[in-house]
Every structure is written in structure tokens, then in C-alpha cells.
Amino acid sequence: MKEVWVLHGPNLNFLGIREPSIYGRQDLQSINEKVQAEGAKNHINIQCYQSNHEGDLIDKLQEAYQKNIDGIIINPGAFTHYSYAIRDAIASISIPVIEVHLSNIYQRESFRHTSVTAPVCIGQICGFGPIGYLLALEALKNKI
Ligand code: DQA
């Protein structure tokens, strides 16, 4: 059975509470359950993890490498725009990583138009809300 990790960055534990006009009303647990259900249909075990801390996400990326995880879906939250450390961690591992954003970061404030992490991912999906995680899983299926 393949294993995919879904990593959520800062403030994503506040989905459903934070800025619902941008991020919607669905909470993180419900998003995770939908991705896990889709994974199960495809014989892919999905483990979900959220942290508000940059180092924790880096530790998780390195752990994924050590455990030979097949693929990663990551929403680095605001770290997307400035964390060279998370970028380096993604670049360090030979695991296909897909970046997801709920909102269309290119329609928003200019500081969100840059992703320092996307260039080291195999692709980026943004602007489709929670469905983005399912689209990422669909894309990953063909890579793992
Ligand atoms: C986000 C977009 C980021 O700019 C923001 O900082 C987030 C969420 C998204 O999913 O749309 O925390 O990654």
C-alpha cells in the first residue's frame, strides 16, 4: 500500500474560523477525512499533519524521506512566500511533492504572488478550495 502525507502549515488548524470569505467554512478535520476517504478508494494510506511551526514541518519532510513515504501534498500557508528553509527541505528529498493553496494566491495581495516553495515541487494547485487536495492526490497517483 502506498503512503502519502498531507502537511498543513500555520493557521490551517483555524479553517472554518479564519476569514471564511476567503477560505470557506470547512474545517481541517473534514478536509483531511475527505482526502483520506479518496486515498482509501485508491489503496493509498493518507496521513495528515498540521503545524504552526516551520521547524516541525521541516522535521516532517525529513521524516518522510527517512520513512520512504511515496508522496507529499503540502500547504505551507504563509511559509510559502518566504521560507527558504522549507524550500530547501523539499528540495532535499527525492519524493514527489505537490503544493496546494485553498485560495488563488495570484489574485490576492502582492506578497502572496511569490511562492519560494513551488519551484521545488512537481506542481502547484491553487484557487479551488478544499477540492485542491483531491486534485493533488489525483495528480500524485500518476507519479507514485
Ligand atoms: C494559503 C495562502 C497563503 O497565502 C496563506 O498565508 C495561508 C493559506 C491558502 O491555502 O490559500 O495561510 O496557503
Helix percent reads 25-40%
Strand proportion, as a percent range, falls in 15-25%
Number of strands: 5
What oligomeric state is this? single chain
Query: Tell me, what's the shape?
Result: globular
Compounds present? Answer: 1,3,4-trihydroxy-5-OXO-cyclohexanecarboxylic acid
Secondary structure class reads alpha/beta
Largest sheet: 5 strands, parallel
CATH superfamily: Dehydroquinase, class II
> Which value, in Å, is the CA radius of gyration?
14 Å
Specify the number of helices: 5
**Overall CATH class:** Alpha Beta
Give me the CATH fold name: Rossmann fold
Report the mean per-residue pLDDT as an integer: 98
Unreliable runs, pLDDT <50, ≥5 residues? Answer: none
| End-to-end separation | 11 Å
Query: How many domain units?
Result: 1
User: What's the architecture, going by CATH?
Assistant: 3-Layer(aba) Sandwich
Along the chain, the helix and strand elements come as EHHEHEHEEH
Describe the structure.
By secondary structure, the protein is of the alpha/beta class. It has one domain (about 1-144): Rossmann fold, CATH 3.40.50. It is about 35% helix and about 20% strand. The chain has helices at about 20-25, 30-40, 55-65, 85-90, 130-140, and strands at about 1-10, 45-50, 70-75, 95-100, 125. Strands 2-1-3-4-5 form a 5-stranded parallel sheet, sandwiched between helices. Helix 4 links the parallel strand 3 and strand 4 (about 95-100). The longest helix is centred in the N-terminal third of the chain and has 14 residues, at about 30-40. The protein is globular and about 40 Å long. The relative contact order is 0.20. The model has no long low-confidence stretch (mean pLDDT about 100). Bound molecules: 1,3,4-trihydroxy-5-OXO-cyclohexanecarboxylic acid. 1,3,4-trihydroxy-5-OXO-cyclohexanecarboxylic acid binds near residues 75, 80 and 112.
